[in-house]
Write a structure and sequence with these properties.
By secondary structure, this protein is of the alpha+beta class. The chain has two helices and five strands, in the order βαββαββ. It has a single domain (about 10-90), classed as Alpha-Beta Plaits.
């Protein structure tokens, strides 16, 4: 019989980052960092100058990515990070998403 308690629980964090986060390479640094961590999801700039991102993966790894969002790439000045946990969608990769 398999022990399912050893399988990591997949979580989804929906994150909104505000501050000086556009025009500083935030989205592309997010893609690099999330991909290195093995997370799936997406990131995009919002018209109100925030960055929005979704991360799916094991809770510890998603939490690590959310911590990274508080600093971001070197040129960013992060003022606030809002996180909402949602049901995972089972995304397959990590990408930059266009604003709708």
């Amino acid at each position: 019989m398999q022990n399912y308690t050893s399988l990591p629980k997949i979580v989804r964090a929906h994150v909104f980052i505000s501050g000086r986060v556009q025009g500083v390479g935030y989205r592309y640094s997010t893609v690099d960092t999330a991909s290195q961590l093995g997370l799936t999801g997406w990131v995009r700039n919002l018209p109100d100058s925030r960055v929005e991102a979704v991360f799916e993966g094991a809770r510890e790894v998603v939490d690590e990515m959310v911590r990274w969002c508080h600093s971001g790439p070197p040129a960013a000045v992060v003022q606030e990070v809002l996180v909402q946990y949602e049901e995972p969608e089972g995304l397959q990769r990590f990408q930059v998403k266009r604003v709708e």
